[in-house]
Amino acid sequence: MRQITEPAAMQTEAAAILRAGKKHGFVPTMGNLHAGHRTLIDQARADGEIVTVSIFVNPTQFNDGADFENYPRTLAADLQLCATAGVDYVFTPTAAEIYAPDRDILVIPDKLANPLCGLSRGRGHFIGVCTVVAKLFNLVRPDRVYFGQKDAQQALIIQRMISDLNFPVKMSLLPTVREADGLALSSRNRLLTKKERQIAPQLYAALQTGAQMLAAGESRPHAVIEKMMSRLSAPEIEIDYLNIVDLATLTDLEEITGDALIAAAIKLGDVRLIDNVIAGRANSALKRGAIE
Ligand code: PAF
User: Fold this and answer.
1) I want to staple 41 with a disulfide (CB 3.0 to 4.6 A). Which of 65, 85, 102, 259 is the partner?
2) pTM value surpassing 0.85
3) Domains along the chain?
4) Average per-residue pLDDT in the chain?
5) 131 pocket-lining for ligand 1 (C-beta < 6 Å)
């Protein structure tokens, strides 16, 4: 495994991989790698010949300076996980190497970035995500990129960026990896207090309640949302959003007639957790676990 910090060196290496005609899988991350990331790496390993993981806590996608400062940084353990998982390249640039002081161009997503996390974290969040992922695509030049369903909105936006801006990259979207009690794995989980960690699985339990109601034929979003909110009644929980949205457009459904994405974000103390499930009966692309 080789660790590369300089963007130009990554690009040179990527060009050689491309020239050699090798399949190159890419797992972009902000580090603090856990079993969810490991699943993405394992899939990339199984699919291709070369696997690159990037570790970069991207400052431009944080709307809250404290959130950026507190984001867990565990490079030594991350490198260990990557080595064990058989990763070929770990790209670990600094912010100064990624962002020129006089930079002037951003990648701005439109409608898909308006609801859910776009609304609660502000316009800048997905602009930061799209801009850095576009840059990473140009530096790593993968033919396939791997994302997890926990960040479903992010994955849909990146998928749209790939098609709208003609990046020669395919995306694989893998199911959310969970703790035994249902809590979605997230780098932020380690910031929870013991009490908050005990309460956190209520988020997935509420999503499951919603999914069961949809499976049973409930078509009224407000009825589902009300029931789910009653499952999130612990005083420590602050509900950020809880929406039942169209799988393709992420707009709120007025009536549930087919598949839907039930997406939620809560705050427990200072920690913001997101999760989602796809509910309904039809066989959507997200449900199959792959967007091509
Ligand atoms: O999901 C993440 O970890 C980040 O948003 C990403 C895609 C690495 C961009 O910084």
Assistant:
1) 85
2) yes
3) 2-174 (3.40.50.620), 187-282 (3.30.1300.10)
4) 95
5) no
